[in-house]
Each structure stands twice: as structure tokens, then as C-alpha cells.
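Students often ask what a holo structure prediction actually looks like on paper. The answer is less mysterious than it sounds. You provide the chain, you provide the ligand, and the output is a string of C-alpha cells encoding the 3D arrangement of the protein together with N-(aminocarbonyl)-beta-alanine.
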Amino acid sequence: MSLLIKNGRIITATKDYTADIYCEDETITQISPNIDPPAGAEVIDATGKYVFPGFIDPHVHIYLPFMGTYSKDDHASGSRAALVGGTTTFIEMCCPARSEEPAEAFELWNRKAEGNSACDYSFHMGVTRYDESAEKQLRDLVSKGLTSFKVFLAYKGAFGVTDDELYNTLKLAKELGVIVTAHCENADLVAAKQAEFVAEGKVGPEWHERSRPVTVEAEGVHHFCTFLESTGAAGYIVHTSNRPAVENAIAAQQRGVDVKIETVIPYLVIDDTYAQKPDFEGAKYVMSPPVRAKEHQEFLWQALADGRIDTVGTDHAPFDFVGQKDMGHPARGSDFTKIPNGIPSIEERIKLLYTYGVCENKIDLKTFVAVASTNSAKLFNLPGKGDIAEGMDADLVIFDPDYRDKISAETQAMNVDYSGFEGVAIKGRPSAVTVRGKIQARDGKFVGDQSRGKLLTRAANPS
Ligand code: URP
Ligand code: ZN
Ligand code: ZN
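The corresponding C-alpha cells follow.
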């Protein structure tokens, strides 16, 4: 299997130049100005197009038992949607219930992905209980190559950990050299506010944001950073949505805390007015932390542009509007706390980030690649990913900047009955997407091998 990509404008996190790229089997073997097509090679003419390294989504939920239901995509549909949108690797949150054993949970999540994912994948191992037995299993999972844990400071009574458990998880992570990703919201404050609002009859989707305001997230970030500081562990704050939360993380960095910062695409495009839409429409935009006021969105773009925010993921968590989001509908007793949290976006991240970031001059092309690919490859130890260079995996996105369209649930590959970005205009889309040398998507359609994806672990990819 060999592939030659001619005349593309190659953009990485550090370089911008025009050249041909030759891939043999799974790897980029030559990059130079004019490569003659070797016999039998498939040739893509990328004149007028960008060639980006395959994009990496550091935060997705594919299999997610949550709030009394299950997220809608499986690894087949989720990976196809990822590829159509230019994402060639995702890192899924493995989220066991507190009563589940970590080793069994990992087996379950991995079994669901294995043979079903069309793109490469890895996991952040959720630590939702910490005791002697859990610790032993976590040690074992790290010895098998997992490079990150996930903790929830939110979701009291479900995935959330106590401070004692948080402390022990971070101590273990420090010892094992594992980075700990964290959902940072003060769970007790959220629970108190939710109870107050519901008791006062404030039950529509618009109350979701007010029940977990900016301060609740900022406190969560500060709290997590304090624990990082006292253990010396490395941390990564997932889905930061607002200025005070990001500033608390930056203040911690300035004290020497090793913490990195993620935001996710819904916060960059959607604001709190969406969650205030009438007739329960706002439920489509309920996620946690919530979508925020416009001023925070502007801040997030600036923080991406100047490198204060490291990555843009999706937090893809698809729940149907009919049959799932409507668990909190007036016809079923009206309660925003029953609306499954999450917005589907694995398919749209790159197109939206390009359209509303690069085309609006909010971020440049190299930053676009850094935050959507390269930085995640480095942080989560994914050798071969996140760059275009000889010897790297041939994960490539040939991107047509002239394409114009509007997002619609009618045409999406994600297995969910609505789009949180319905009618939103996009400029540009991937015209070909390769996973380790094989073309997996073309012009918005999956065209590849459904079982091509492989699990990326430190053991499988020694650096
Ligand atoms: O609303 C969200 N974010 N749903 C998925 C679970 C999580 O907190 O990441
Ligand atoms: Zn979360
Ligand atoms: Zn999440």
C-alpha cells in the first residue's frame, strides 16, 4: 500500500511549506518538493489544499452509561463521524461506576472499541473509587501502557471522588508518571444549587447554567490545582468554559504547578443564549460545565491564540433530543437535573475550529494544528501522531478551504437525532483523511475499513 500526496500546503504546529508526501504502508517515508509517482502508488492531487497531521480529540465519550441512559454512538458510528470530520485518533473517557472494578471496566470499554473503531483510539482511565483493590488494578493498567487517569470533582454520588480519593489518586499518578485529567466543578455547591432551584420551581433547561455558575467551576479548578500542588502530580483540566477557571489554572502554573488546560468546541461556538431557547429547545445545549456568556467565549479564543490553553477537544457526549434529553421535559415532570448532559460534536470540531478560529483570524494555522493535534500527542504520549515528518504515522488530513456548507443533523454521520450546530455555516472540510496510510474518509463520507483503528498505549508504541 503506497500513497503519494502532491502539491499540498503542509501545515504543522511549527512549519508551513509546500511539498509532496510519500507514504509506504503505515508510515510517511519521504517528504520533498517533487516526488515522481512510484509504480502502483495511489496519488492525491492536493493543489490548493492544506495537508494537516491527523487531528486528535483528547476528550470523547463513546460508550457512556450516564444519568440513567447511554450515549448514542458506538465505536463504529463515533469513529466514522470522527474521520469524516478529520479526527484520526480519539481518547475516550473510560468511566466505571463506583461499584465497578477498574480492570473489568477497562476490558469492557476496550472490548467495545476493539475491531469496531475505524480510527485509532486510547483511553483516559477513570478513577471513580480509590481503595487498595482499585489501586492494585490501576497500577496494573498503567504497566500495560495507559498514560492517563480521569477524575471527576463533579457528579456527586456517581463518578465523583472524595478529597481523600483525589489525594491518593494523585499520589499514585505522581509515582507512576501518569497525567491526571480532571472535570473540575464543586459537586456540593452544584447539588445545593440544583436542590434550591428545583424546590423554587426553577426547572427549565435555562436553570442548568445558573446551578453550576462560573464560580463553581473556578473553585473546582483551584481545588484540583491545590491537590496537584501538594502531591507534585501532573494534571490536565478538561473542558474549561470560562475566564476565572482558566485564570485559576494559570495562577497555579505560575506557582509551579504542572497543569495543562483544555477547552472544547461547544464553548467556542455556542453561548448561554442557546440553553435559554424556549419550548425545551435549550435542552439540546445542556452540558457540564455549561455553555457560558459570550464574554467567556472571547476570552477562550484569546487564550488559545496565545498558548495559555493547550488543547481543543469536543467532550462528545451524544444523547437524542427525543427519548433522552426529554427526560427533563415538562411532559415528564420538568426537571433540568434529569436532562442527560452532553453535546454531540466529534464530527464538527475541526470544521468549526477552522471556520470560527482560523477564518476569523482568532488563531493562526499553526496554532490550529497545535491545539487540535500536536499538543495532545505530546501530553498523552502518542508517538507517531500529531506531526508530519518522515517516520511518523501516515495520519493525514487533506483539507479543502474552499468548501462551503451548513451543518445539519440530516447529513451527519453521528448517530444522534439533532445537531447542536444546526444551520451553522462552515468554511472548509476534509477532502481526504488517512489512518496509517489508508484513505478512510473522502468528501464528507466514510469510505474505509471499519476495523482499521488500533489501541494506542505506551507499551504498543514505545517512545
Ligand atoms: O456534559 C458533559 N460534559 N457530559 C459528559 C460527561 C462529562 O462531564 O464530561
Ligand atoms: Zn466532564
Ligand atoms: Zn467529558
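The first strand starts at residue 2 and ends at 11.
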